[in-house]
Amino acid sequence: MAKKIAGTIIGLILIGALLNIPVTTRQGVNYEVRTMKIPLYIKAVEFIDRDYHYKRLMREIIKDKNTDEAKILAIYKWVTENISGNIPSGWAIYDDHVLNIIIRRYGAPDQISDVLATLATYAGYPSIVYKVMPKNSDNKFYVTLVNLKGHFLIFDPYFKNYFIDRQKTVAAVEYIKANYPHLVPVNPNVLAMKYRGISYIDYFGDLNTNVDFTDTKAYRQLPGYRFGYEIKKKLGNK
Question: In what order do the strands lie in the sheet with 94-95?
């Protein structure tokens, strides 16, 4: 009995030591990144907590939607109505976790697109933050690319826009490429808009269709996928 008790105590001590191994987390503030050390158990608990909140929010958003496009549009609508691109003057731009962007309710274009990509991925539609650039320009802008059964749908939650096709549904990348520059935006204001001195529409004139959805940032928010990802990284496969 004494040996069993001693073994249990030693086991608990080892588990405690393992859970308190220092690991790192990063946070960007106004585009300056700092690395902080936290115990492993804190990082794990926070990861599980974020996963719970993403699932809960996603289910609440799409609970009464019956089609794929209706679910994706519901997530897009929620993001555009709840995450503002108008960052208050003097407020810092934080870059840490998507859940914190949702809590703060504001973000830069890439951050808002990240929220949409994460929630869409949780709903079963692999998504990424997608960079669009005009031809012969270094300017770039970030939107969300959603993979719906092999069709890549583009959403711009920052300027609250996407393009529609002849069937009045969300235009996929192949449609946009074939019909540029004669595109029909759901937000007509973008037709006269310029971003960094270049016509908004021109950012969609040279889209890259070679996109890999097998290993995305949004996927890494999923516990099962993240566990395998971290194992592969430790083994030098990432």
Answer: 32-39, 22-29, 94-95
